[in-house]
Amino acid sequence: METLVSGLTEKKDRTAEAVASIVIPIYGEGSHILNSIRVIDNLLKENHIYHKFILIDDGSKDNTWQQLEFLAYGNTDITAIRLSRNFGKEAAICAGLEYADGDYTIVMDSDLQHPPELIPEMVKIWREEGYDVVEGVKNARGKEKILYSLGVKVFYKFIYKTSNIDLSNASDFKLLDKKVIMAWKQLPERTTFFRGMSAWVGFSRKPIGFDVKERVNGKSKWSMIRLIKLALNAITSYTTVPLHFITLMGIVLFILFLIIGIQTIYMKITGRALDGFTTVILLQLIIGGSVMISLGIIGIYLTKIYHEVKARPRYLIAKCIKGGKEV
């Protein structure tokens, strides 16, 4: 099979000979993954960007892995990893970063919604301006429902206000210097959020805008439930503010109950006490709702502690083809 990519064994930091690790998580993209890889590969070759692919199949149920095997066998510049099941995009990115050994790493999606033509500009910024992180920021998010778009804005605003991590219009489309990857590998948590973790490690960074393109084929694998889970995971990973909401809620309710209690005693003493059925019902609903919300917030954090204490691996690898052969 014709070699798809070009690479150099000798790596020189931030020069034209520097080698990029292209990390691409993949799930259910068998219908177009070969074309996507060729598009990216041809563009990088045209711009003389030496690179190696790290392709991670996140437990796809279609023919994705067969296509990746076709690419990887006999090709020393492609590493194909198959996870034992669907662990999720975050875990797939983790697997790719663990195998990344280039002078810098580029993380991008397989559906070409992250425009490959932006990569040369990202590499130029990394090489000539010396930034350690070049992150793709969405100018336009593509076709999204109004409710979803509003939810995303609220989520990013909340993260920024509570943790001082600005993820506004952030994406997984990033260029990371080797030292950033080494710092990222020191983060031990099992439940990961790549955008937040890559922002938390710091280093010099520069945003670069892009418009989200239409998918080359198929449809998004992200359901509303999965997006909500991702948002909850991100919020509870980078801020404890929801726990403080419980304390604030308790203080507000205590003040409210104190006022109502004083009023009730006064009405009783003056002989003007009235039937308080409605008031009692409302108080029970407020107290009950507050308690359940508080328990829910605490439960989310306990769940995260539970998963971290078990210390299970982020992912399991069923098969890996590296250097043109299975390892």
Describe this protein's structure.
This protein has helices at residues 33-46, 64-72, 89-99, 119-129, 146-163, 178-184, 194-200, 224-238, 241-269, 277-310, and strands spanning 19-26, 50-57, 78-83, 104-107, 133-140, 170-177, 205-211, 317-322, 325-326. It is an alpha/beta fold and 327 residues long. The chain has a nine-stranded mixed sheet, sandwiched between helices. Helix 2 links the parallel strand 2 (50-57) and strand 3 (78-83). Helix 5 (146-163) runs parallel beside helix 8 (224-238) and helix 9 (241-269) packs antiparallel against helix 10.
Radius of gyration: 25 Å
* Number of helical elements: 10
Cα distance spanning the termini: 20 Å
The ordered H/E elements are EHEHEHEHEHEHHEHHHEE
What topology, given as strand order, has the largest sheet? 7-5-6-4-1-2-3-8-9
Shape annotation: elongated
- Unreliable spans: 1-12
> Roughly what is the average pLDDT, rounded to an integer?
75
